[in-house]
Amino acid sequence: GHPLMHIDIVGHCSRPVSDSGLPRIIHHPSDVVVRVGSPATLSCRAEGNPKPTIQWLRNGQPLDTDKMDAQSQPVVLPEGSLFFFSVIPGRKSQSHEAVYACVARNSAGVATSRNASLHILAFCK
Length: 125
Prior knowledge:
- This protein is 10% helix and 37% strand.
- It is mainly β.
- It has a single domain, classed as Immunoglobulin-like (Sandwich).
- Strands 2, 5, 6, 9, 10 and 11 form a 6-stranded mixed sheet that branches.
- It is elongated.
- The model is unreliable at 1-17 (pLDDT under 50).
């Protein structure tokens, strides 16, 4: 007597797994609004065969997450999400306030997520 659950399960199980192994974004990032100095996470999960690598774009440009300064540079978590220890405003090039997207890549192809904006709330006195 759970027809909706039944349909959902059938829908999940009957969907053929793509032989091509093309990457597919299964969790897109969403817009976030964060206070200055607070942590923030932009979610991204992808599947594919072989397992895709995740790269993030900031305002359309590849984001360098390999720098050692983790306090100011966001890091890519193992599942692909982008984590900011402490969001900072600042000059346009350094500010974390931007539009982000994640790109999943493997030998079969590339998939790009929807764009997500990170907005920073200034402290109010």
